[in-house]
Amino acid sequence: MRPVNVNLWINDGRIQEAVDHWVSLFPDSRIVSSTPYGEEAGDLAGQTMAVVFELQGQPYTAINGGDTRFEPNEAVSLAVPCDTQDEIDRLWAGLTDGGKAGPCGWLSDRFGFAWQVYPAALDDHLGDPEVAPRAVAYFMTLDGVPFSIADLEAAVRGD
């Protein structure tokens, strides 16, 4: 069996814009292939039907949904654990550009997809029963702002 692949449905023909934007934000990312709709697609003929791309080496497929209304929501998010504050700040700025900042390190990009941009250390902290409550208390205070690694670490220490 091959690995699971994530398919992202994009409305209104904005498929190339979305993929170009995401690939520009993440290192080691690229467009692998692009497939147009054929003549049999009527009004969609010639438009991009699907784009296979990689973000940091992980495969994704974007599907051009045309004018159908399958909308992304927060039930599924793309989680990005970051090692540095610069990574958090750069990705937060790029992904919220035209999008919307949310609570607890979440955001929605301009295409409606939910992202979690957070310090990679949070995963370890949440797995440690002694510090997890302090880590959770910190990220619950975030409302529309990116994570601060320094503030998270101070909260975990009990400062």
UniProtKB/TrEMBL annotation:
Question: InterPro entries from the xrefs?
Answer: 3_dmu_93_MTrfase, Glyas_Bleomycin-R_OHBP_Dase, PhnB-like
CDD domains on file: PhnB_like
Q: Which residues form a coiled coil?
A: none
| One Pfam family per UniProt | 3-dmu-9_3-mt
Q: Which residues form the PhnB-like domain?
A: 7-117
| Any GO BP annotation | methylation
Q: Which UniProt keywords apply?
A: Methyltransferase, Transferase, Ubiquinone
GO MF annotations, alphabetized: methyltransferase activity
Q: Which domain of life is it from?
A: Bacteria
> Where are its TM segments located?
none
- Please identify the protein, giving its name as recorded: Putative 3-demethylubiquinone-9 3-methyltransferase (Glyoxalase superfamily)
Q: What's the source species for this entry?
A: Nocardioides aurantiacus
What does the record give as the organism's lineage?
Bacteria, Bacillati, Actinomycetota, Actinomycetes, Propionibacteriales
